Structures are given as C-alpha cells and as structure tokens.
Amino acid sequence: YKELKEKILYFASGLISIGINKGDKAAIISENRPEWAIADYGIIHTGALTVPIYPSLPQNQIEYILKTSGAKYVIVSDRKQCKKINNICRKLDLLKYVISLSEPEKEYAFGIKTFNDIIEEGKKDYINNKKRLDELSEQIDFDDVFTIIFTSGTTDNPKGVELTHGNVLSNIEATLNAVEITREYLFLSFLPLAHILERMVGQFLPLYLGASIAYAENLSTLKQNIIEVRPTIILSVPRIFEKMHEA
C-alpha cells in the first residue's frame, strides 16, 4: 500500500505538471490492470473527474463519449486504443494529452506520454507540485462529482451518469453493513472496471478496507487464474457463473 500511495501521488503530480485542474475530465480506456486503479485515484486526487470507457467500444462511440463529457485527457491501455484516438483526435477540440499504459508504436497526431513518463515527471516535480496537489485535494467535497459513467446506449446514444464521492462512500458503508468483509480478503477483478459494479465493489471497496486485488488476465484464463490466486471473493454476473459450471 505504501508503493500504491506513492504511485498515485506521483501520477497525480504528473497530471498537474501537464496542466490538469479541478473539474477537468480524464477518460480511461483500458482493460483491468493495476494501472487502471492508480490512474483513477490519481485523477480523483486532483479534483478532476474520471470518465471510464469500455475498451471494446468502436471509435465512433468513444468519440461521442469524449466529446459529450468534454474530456481533455485520455488514458489508453495499448496501441489498439491509441489507433482509435488517432483516427478521431482532430474532431476532439478539447483533447490535450493521451497517456498510454504501454509504449506507443509510432508518432501520433496528438501529444502522447506513457504512464511511466507521467509517474517519473510527477516524482521529479513532486516537491513543487505538492502544495497545489494538497490544495486541490482539500477542496474536494462530499457532494462533488468524481466520475461520469456512460450507459451502454443500446437504443440511443449513451447517457452520462454523474456520481459523487458521497455516493461511493454510502455504497461502501451499506455493503459492509450487509456483508462481512475484512482486509484479509483477496478479490479477483475481471468484470470491466468501466462498469460501476466492478469499480465500486472490486476496486473502491477492497482498497477502502486495505484488502488485496488480483487482476485476471482475461475471461478465457479466468478458471486458471482462480486456481492460481485462490481469491476469497469473486464478483460476477450469473452468465459467467453458468459458463464456469458448464465447463
């Protein structure tokens, strides 16, 4: 947790170095991985808002969400997602930076930094940025919006749903009142973090408790990952359990 805290603070500091401010929107387009949580908490720590986007979405839907939310920063997992942003970036007037969790393949038509670039820049500038970072985090209020989550949009364009810090805390408290969970538990994360169920119960809840999170490689390796890490809790939906039973 000490390492996690340092990376979150350095990432937040790095975001300040590239110009993020309270109320700005930063999108995350990535599969589940530790960097997802670090980026999410880093964004929130600056008073900015996270806009999670499913990496499986086609670029036209990603374009719509980025435009509608007004995202200035986009965090992507890999070259495939970089390519999507490259194809639509000229239509995104507010876009300032793309941050890639992996090494970019080539030069793109937008400013791009890697996740490690932001961490290193934030570490280097941390002493200078700490006062500003403290000011931004102290301004965060219980009723402030911290994320905009877009619905699937099966019948129309996706709709953005705003959630506050208070929403998350009340849900965590309600869950802990209903279910006995301790910091000794190990969670296995595999449902998309772009969905509030996984993000709430599979990320915020265990980190609130000081518990541990393992990240499944993908759905096809889920059975093997369960055997390997032996999680205490698996958050899922009925269809996944049915498939596991059938297997």
From TrEMBL:
Q: Does the keyword ATP-binding apply?
A: yes
Please give the InterPro entries that the UniProt record associates with this protein: AMP-dep_synth/lig_dom (IPR000873), ANL_N_sf (IPR042099)
- Kindly list the GO molecular function terms attached to this UniProt entry: ATP binding; long-chain fatty acid-CoA ligase activity
What UniProt keywords are attached to this protein's entry?
Answer: ATP-binding, Nucleotide-binding
One Pfam family per UniProt: AMP-binding
Q: Gene Ontology terms, cellular component aspect?
A: membrane
Q: Which Gene3D superfamilies match?
A: N-terminal domain of ligase-like
Record protein name field: AMP-dependent synthetase/ligase domain-containing protein
Starting at the broadest rank, the lineage of the source organism is:
unclassified sequences, metagenomes, ecological metagenomes
